[in-house]
Design goal:
The chain is α/β, with parallel strands linked by helices. It has five helices and six strands, in the order H-H-E-E-H-E-H-E-E-E-H. About 6% of the residues have low confidence.
Length: 214
């Protein structure tokens, strides 16, 4: 074997040496921690309240464990799965307030109004939160007013024949709700007519303050 061949073989062996493999793994873990560590840490802080000096107690109903948005099988107005807009792999993931109702009557419209006003009241953070609604049926009066009053609220749809798997405590056929979806694509909290807009605003302000995502 020539000196050049021997040198190439040694370099190849060194590339796959146990020590070099370990260094590569440590570097990969470090890059992951730098990129996603703050997001994961913020989520743990919010869900557990750990190291929260204000002792904040949420007003909304927590969903534990958080429910994956993908289980609802909802689609956006463009026909693509809504869940595709969420996840740590995205550069600018969003938060979302989602109104869900089997039949959108007076209670449902009250929640549509609250979601809109709370979103506006977030001020400089309003752009971090999008609004959407899945409504089984809508009355003629609301349908006529939709474009003038709720044009910024995206109407979601279900693929034909699909049946959403709603989180525990959420049944739109029985009661309209507002769902809070985090940038990871998890449904983490819900509100109803028993909650005030002020309570929801307090929760969202706190959530956005401690969050490093969205």
């Amino acid at each position: 074997m020539t000196t050049a061949e021997s040198r190439n073989e040694n370099n190849e062996n060194d590339r796959f040496s146990p020590e070099r493999v370990k260094r590569g793994r440590r570097m990969a873990l470090l890059l992951f921690a730098v990129g996603f560590g703050p997001m994961i840490f913020a989520t743990v802080l919010y869900y557990t309240g750990w190291m929260n000096p204000t002792g904040h107690s949420n007003h909304g109903e927590l969903i534990q464990p958080p429910a994956p948005l993908a289980e609802l099988e909802l689609q956006g107005t463009d026909g693509t799965p809504l869940a595709d807009r969420f996840g740590p792999q995205l550069e600018d993931p969003e938060w979302m307030l989602m109104v869900v109702a089997g039949n959108c009557g007076a209670q449902c419209e009250e929640l549509l109004y609250v979601a809109r006003q709370v979103n506006i009241a977030l001020g400089k953070n309003a752009a971090r939160v999008n609004r959407a609604a899945w409504l089984g049926t809508v009355g003629e009066d609301l349908a006529e007013r939709w474009d003038s009053e709720y044009s910024s609220m995206e109407k979601l749809t279900l693929p034909e024949g699909s049946e959403p798997s709603w989180p525990a405590g959420v049944d739109p056929s029985q009661q309209s709700r507002i769902l809070v979806v985090d940038p990871f694509g998890n449904i983490i909290m819900h509100y109803g007519s028993e909650h005030t807009g002020k309570q929801m605003l307090q929760d969202l302000k706190h959530l956005l303050k401690i969050s490093q995502i969205g």
